[in-house]
Amino acid sequence: MNAPWNWSEQGACRTIAPDSLFVQGQEQNRAKSVCLGCHVRTECLAYALDNREEFGIWGGMTERERRALLRRRPHVTSWQRLLETARNTHGQTNDSNRWDIA
Ligand code: SF4
């Protein structure tokens, strides 16, 4: 039997210090840049949104950006399903507006 896929082991951030994703102010922009080429960005952001992660950079978004998104879309019950559908519909890109979910 195969072990379940662990997306976090595939993250572009796996080789950097975890603390570098939990920064404030201007340092967040540098931290977010790590996510630009990450192949598991969708999974990471969906996890953070579905689990209401309060701190840190997840899926290329700061906690403030995630809070704003959650306020705009209070009726989403599964960000994983929504983001995977968006990715499958619109394809994979690396720009900051890759998900048509605003
Ligand atoms: S999206 Fe960013 S925080 Fe999430 S696994 Fe990838 S590099 Fe790490």
UniProtKB/TrEMBL annotation:
Keywords: 4Fe-4S, Cytoplasm, Disulfide bond, DNA-binding, Iron, Iron-sulfur, Metal-binding, Transcription, Transcription regulation. [4Fe-4S] cluster binds at residues 13, 35, 38, 44. It is found in: Cytoplasm. GO terms for molecular function: 4 iron, 4 sulfur cluster binding; dinitrosyl-iron complex binding; DNA binding; metal ion binding; protein-disulfide reductase [NAD(P)H] activity. The keyword Disulfide bond applies. Its cofactor is [4Fe-4S] cluster. GO terms for biological process: cell redox homeostasis; negative regulation of DNA-templated transcription. One of its GO terms (cellular component) is cytoplasm. InterPro entries: 4FE4S_WBL (IPR034768), Whib (IPR003482). Residues 12-68 form the 4Fe-4S Wbl-type domain. Pfam families: Whib. Binds 1 [4Fe-4S] cluster per subunit. Following nitrosylation of the [4Fe-4S] cluster binds 1 [4Fe-8(NO)] cluster per subunit. Upon Fe-S cluster removal intramolecular disulfide bonds are formed. Belongs to the WhiB family. Acts as a transcriptional regulator. Probably redox-responsive. The apo- but not holo-form probably binds DNA. This is Transcriptional regulator WhiB. The gene is whiB.
